[in-house]
Each structure stands twice: as structure tokens, then as C-alpha cells.
Amino acid sequence: MQQNSQQQGVGFQQMPVRIQEPNMHREDFSSQKVMPQNPSVDVSIQRMLTQAGVSNFAQQMQQIGQHLQYLTERLHYAQNQVQTQAEAQLRELHQIQQAIVLTMQQMQQAQISANMQPNLMQ
Length: 122
Hints:
Elements: H1 2-14, H2 39-51, H3 57-121
């Protein structure tokens, strides 16, 4: 298997790059130990790593893992930012809602008072 993956690595450098939609919706690769075969993605990753001067497969996987970890941390940060903003907006909307309810109550009280005053004058 290791010989095969090393041979594939050499073959990928010679393959033309084809742009295509990823087929991740068809299969779940999270439980598999073998990486999905997507030549266009594999070629671009291989080319990127070759340009960076990384030739050792273990180093390549470590760099990809570090990059994925960095992207995951950025995603979590962005999610926290969005959640914080959403909570602040929700609090603001709740305050506006309370102000509207209070204003409507005051208007009803004023209307009741206005309706009662003519009766008092009679």
C-alpha cells in the first residue's frame, strides 16, 4: 500500500488539472482511513506542496493537518463572532419589543383617560 501511494504521488504530478465539483455529498469519508480519490484536488495539493519544497509524505500530511487546524480555529472564531452579534441583536430586539408594549399600554391608558373625561364633565 505504501509503495502504491508513493507511485500515485509521482503520477499526480504528471496529471493535467481538471476543475470539477467535489462529490462529497455522495459519500462520507470521515470514517474511512483512505483519503478520497479526487484527482483535481489531489493534484492542486500536490502541486502546492511541491512548490513549497515539501517532498516527504509525512511532512505533507503534517502541513495539511496544521492548515486544517488553522482553518478550523478561524471557523470557530467566526462562529463565536456571529453568535455574539446575534445575541446582542436579540437583546436589542427584546428591548425594542418591551418599549413598544410599554408605549401601547400608555396609549391605551391615555385613550381610557380621554374617554372618561367627557363623562366626568357631564
